[in-house]
Amino acid sequence: MNATLDTDAARRPVTRRTFDDVLVPTYAPAAMVPVCAAGLDVWDQDGKRYLDFTSGIATLGLGHCNPAVVAALTRQANTLWHVGNGYTNEPVLRLASALTAATFADRAFFCNSGAEANEAALKLARKYAHEAFGAHKSRIVSCHASFHGRTLFTVSVGGQAKYTEGFAPLPPGISHIHYNDIASAREAITDDVAAVIVEPIQGEGGVVPGDAAFLQALRDLCDGTGALLVFDEVQSGMGRTGALYDYMNVGVTPDILTSAKALGNGYPIGAMLTTDRIGRHFSAGSHGTTYGGNPLAATVALSVLEQIDRPAFLARVRTAGAALMANLERLAADYPQLFARPRGKGLLLGLPLAHGYRGRSKDFTKAAEQLGLMLLIAGPDVVRLAPALVVSDDQIAQADRIMRRAANALLAAR
């Protein structure tokens, strides 16, 4: 039966209920609907103001509607939006030059998301291994509780059963080791491994920092077997841990690095960075994407990079992270029945729930949201804080006050 186009549908008032009526239910969004924002402040449809300590899941490193990013996007929107990948463009060449100058990499590939960046990294790793060693070298090693995206390949690599349930058969040739477990890595990383992919700090898996010794062991094992080491810095990158990328903090250099989220400050862009030696195995036509590296995305990302990759900016991230961590440590000490010891790095921090409240991280974030503070979870047992990197001392103090009120509310409701 043919439906008649309702030209007025997009003009009718929308509410949270509209989500349930017209969108595929892959998410369970909050009851409030944000409508405008600036910096770390968000207002909903009712005009209520919130302090945003989620930054769009560690994406809005420079905060909502950053003036310099808005200006860059506006200029480019009036210049050149898109060309097919039979052409290049000036903004993407500038961005690639800046990223390679700032990192270990010689080459960049641009796409639209972290999942696509990881997909490209894993495809490149297998192609490199097949051409350099033979088709027998194809296995991918990842960590339990990791997260690398939602494509069928990357979600299988992630190693969390809750994300792969119902999608079998899953891609073969993937193994998982225990995070921060060197013995587990030694057992798994043998001569048939094409790549080892790891988050230097697990985000979705509970905000767990990687031990420097573990990450160095992965580097050594890859060097010994000819495997490539891939760092997934989709969440930890772009200043989030107080360095441009966290590999710079731990002193372990990967062969391939993936970046997204804060690279575009909310504008969709992903990047895969690698060396000449490896990158040349992606020849013309071997991989691609329609929108990847388009002028709009590249212009936004370059504006973001130029603001974040400054010593004074990154030093402030480290200072703000230390202040936020100190508040969380005091909060955990004052509410031992509710919280365990916090963990994380820079402005990517996790607050685990104590034994009696495990499984209730969402209850705590809902209580905080009612009081005007937006927080994340990292699984059912960990509250995650990832404010914009431009967070002020006053905003850190405000978040602490609201979290204490939320803690009291949760305890009173038990």
Can you summarize this structure?
With 414 residues, the protein is an alpha/beta fold. The chain contains 15 helices and 17 strands.
How are the SSEs ordered, and which strands pair?
Layout: H1 16-22, E1 34-38, E2 41-44, E3 49-52, H2 55-58, H3 67-77, H4 90-102, E4 107-111, H5 114-132, E5 139-143, H6 152-158, H7 161-164, E6 174-177, H8 182-188, E7 193-198, E8 201-202, E9 208-209, H9 212-225, E10 228-232, H10 247-250, E11 256-259, E12 270-274, H11 276-279, H12 295-308, H13 311-334, E13 343-345, E14 348-352, H14 361-370, E15 373-374, E16 376-377, E17 382-385, H15 393-413
Parallel strand pairs: 3-15, 5-6, 5-7, 7-10, 10-11
Antiparallel strand pairs: 1-2, 2-3, 4-12, 8-9, 11-12, 13-14, 14-17, 16-17
Can you say what the CATH homologous superfamily of the largest domain is? Type I PLP-dependent aspartate aminotransferase-like (Major domain)
For the largest beta-sheet, the strand count, sense and barrel status come to: 7 strands, mixed
Strand content: 15-25%
CATH fold title of the largest domain: Aspartate Aminotransferase, domain 2
Q: How many domains make up the coordinates? A: 2
Helix amount? 25-40%
